[in-house]
Amino acid sequence: MIYTVTLNPSIDCVMAVGAIEAGATNRALSQELRFGGKGVNVSRALARIGEASVALGFTAGFTGEALARHTAETERLITPDFIALREGVTRVNVKLRGEAETEINAPGPRVGAEEANALLKKLDALREGDTLVLSGSLPSGLPADFYARMLARVRGKGVRAAVDTSGAALEACLPFRPFLVKPNKQEIEALFGAGADPAECAFRLREAGARNALVSLGADGAVLADETGAVIFAEAKSRSGGCTVGAGDAALAGFIAAAARGAAGAKALDFAMERAKEWIEANAWRSQLS
Q1: Within 10 Å of residue 124's Cβ, how many Cβ atoms?
Q2: Using CA atoms, how far apart are residues 220 and 233, in angstroms rounded to an integer?
């Protein structure tokens, strides 16, 4: 079974906009609500290729209830198993799609120690051959090494782990030799400096502990440093102009699904890029007002 973890899920309000004037009232051309967060997006991308998953994480308040209900009602291959926090609300993010894609991400609710421990205990259900996907930012109340603590909880059980986070949270996971890490270009530049070479960074992440390091580069495709030591480039497959929010999550889903089916290296990377393409094209903007 594949388990995805979204510690800080969200409802994304995606708006198509024209030129934005600061300090004035701006009107969107259209809007769409998307329920998820990075781990939930991975679960959705997996469902599209027939892979079942359990969605773990935290929700809070009426927005969290809506997210869990929507996931359960719309995705038969996803089993929501979220922990409801006592206080706060699941965050609502704003994504503006115009001349450039602009994101305004809200803070998440605070997670208490008891609630954090409850999530760690859920990991005891994982068995050899399962996959654990840790994706996204950490909500307040959790330490920077919380993902690493989750990896420590399943260490030695034969669980394949994938990590998609950034900064100190990512670095803390590397000693646990996760099967896959998947930063994007901005995240590797935050780690290695502006203008850092993605291929070199992927190789360095592998040397630091990751068995595979997949760096997503948006319109420039992706680069993979795989567990044999090879560095493989892939071009972006979609030229549709669709919304790219969640495409990296789809690529991660594709890679781990390919690995579970016995693929590796270039074949797994190609499968991942196909899933990103399908995600982008499925989310192409359709409702523009004249």
Answers
A1: 10
A2: 10
| Cα separations in angstroms, 117 against 58, 120, 122 | 12, 5, 9
Please answer whether residues 223 and 210 qualify as being in contact, where contact means their C-beta atoms are separated by less than 8 angstroms.
no
Right CATH for 2-9+36-90+108-282 from 3.30.300.30, 3.40.1190.20, 3.90.1150.10, 3.30.420.10: 3.40.1190.20
Long-range contacts of range 72-79, CB-CB < 8 Å, 24 or more positions apart?
A: 75/43, 75/44, 75/47, 76/47, 77/46, 77/47, 77/50, 77/51, 77/52, 77/53, 78/40, 78/43, 78/44, 78/47, 78/52, 78/53, 78/54, 79/52, 79/53, 79/54, 79/55
pLDDT in tens, 57-89: 999 999 999 999 999 888 889 999 999 999 999
Stated length of the chain: 290
288: confidence class by pLDDT, cuts 50, 70, 90: very low
Per-residue pLDDT reduced to its tens digit, 13-50: 989 998 888 899 999 999 989 898 899 999 999 999 99
Segments making up each domain of the chain, as ranges: 2-9+36-90+108-282
Q: Record the pTM.
A: 0.90
> How far apart (Å, rounded) are the C-alpha atoms in residues 166 and 172?
10
Catalytic residue annotation: 249
The type of residue at 264 is A
Contact criterion met (CB below 8 Å) for 22 and 279: no
d(CA 122, CA 117): 9
